[in-house]
Amino acid sequence: MSLGRRCALGLAGLAVLLGLWWLGTDVLSQAGGMARRFSPGATFVSLGQLLTGSDLPMHILVSLRRIAVGLGFALAIGVPLGLAIGSWRRLEATVSPAMQFLRMISPLSWMPIAVMVFGVGDDPVYFLLTFAAVWPIVLNTAAGVQQLDTRWLQLAQSVAATRWETLRHVILPGVLGHILTGVRLAIGILWIVLVPCEMLGVSAGMGYFILDTRDRLAYSELMAMVLMIGVLGFLLDAAARALYRYWRG
């Protein structure tokens, strides 16, 4: 399928979604009802006002910074751990049950503990985001190591490559695609977890802004923020997909 046709179909799908939104809030809802406050017309007007005449861009940048920090910590932990697990079967057998147990615990269930341990502010948010993002990176990195062509490793041994040289020139390039897949999955999880994490007593961020709009009864602004979260999440995923396609050439 050509790129133009794919774009046209994608736009058609978005148009259908927008139409359903309009039907649900403007056509099928009662006049003066709560649903009318979330209509597309009021939402887009509020979105334009927020982007040009409020501190919404600052909240967005704060949230993106937290995503970057959480993803950075997850990469720093997950890639070395995944390389180790994929390289040593005994280590995999030892840590796999504990790792599978931990990754099945919702990151949000750690919220009260994170606040008690780290206090309010950015630190508990970073912990929760890192905990959420590290598992897909670990698992995909380990899977990449285990799927490496053994002939590459044998070639490295035949030229007397050191462990560091083998890691740098054979293993890491061979598993980079798997790492990027893990990063894309991690970004999706991070974006879902971010908003509730930013309701932990922080004073900035998109989650905080949603609570602020609720408290002010600014419903069209609340819906505008929900729309902005969807747009930014879509763009982040598109960037991750583009990076993966670039790596594959």
UniProtKB/TrEMBL annotation:
The record's CDD domains line, in alphabetical order, gives: TM_PBP2 (cd06261)
The residue ranges of the ABC transmembrane type-1 domain are 60-240
Q: Does the keyword Cell membrane apply?
A: yes
Q: How does it sit in the membrane?
A: Multi-pass membrane protein
Q: Which domain of life is it from?
A: Bacteria
Segments spanning the bilayer are 67-88, 100-119, 125-145, 185-210, 222-244
List UniProt keywords, sorted A-Z. Cell membrane, Membrane, Transmembrane, Transmembrane helix, Transport
Give the family per the record.
Belongs to the binding-protein-dependent transport system permease family.
The name under which this protein is listed is: ABC transporter permease
Q: Which organism is it from?
A: Achromobacter seleniivolatilans
